[in-house]
Amino acid sequence: MNVTAARLAEVKAVAIAESLTSAQAARTLGVSVSTVRRMREDLKLYAFPYGRQWRYPAWQFRSGAVIPGLEKLVPAITLSMHPAFVRGMMLAPRPRLADGETWTTPRSFLVNGGDPARVASIFEELAAL
């Protein structure tokens, strides 16, 4: 296995390890599994297929709730975007979300009340490439 393939396998494994099953997401949010499914279908939660199930990345949850503004971001994330890529985009500091000279991650930006349209625009531009 070459270095690139090994690195890709590693980032895929991390994306899966840092995600929740439907039942785990339901417990985290204090709702039923069917509610989690509806939230996914209504694009209020981001999920990716893994085998015969859906996985819900942990980065979108905080203190038993969905991070603020997620429902405006999820429609901008296309299914063609690999979950490891989405994870990296959400957890790496972005210059376009800078407060002065300090960059912030899209997740932190949303948690701290940032405009979700700014984060969505990053994903929309990438989807258009």
TrEMBL record:
User: A Pfam family for this UniProt protein?
Assistant: HTH_17
Q: Where is the Helix-turn-helix domain?
A: 20-60
InterPro entries per the UniProt record, alphabetical: HTH_17
Name the chain's protein: Excisionase family DNA binding protein
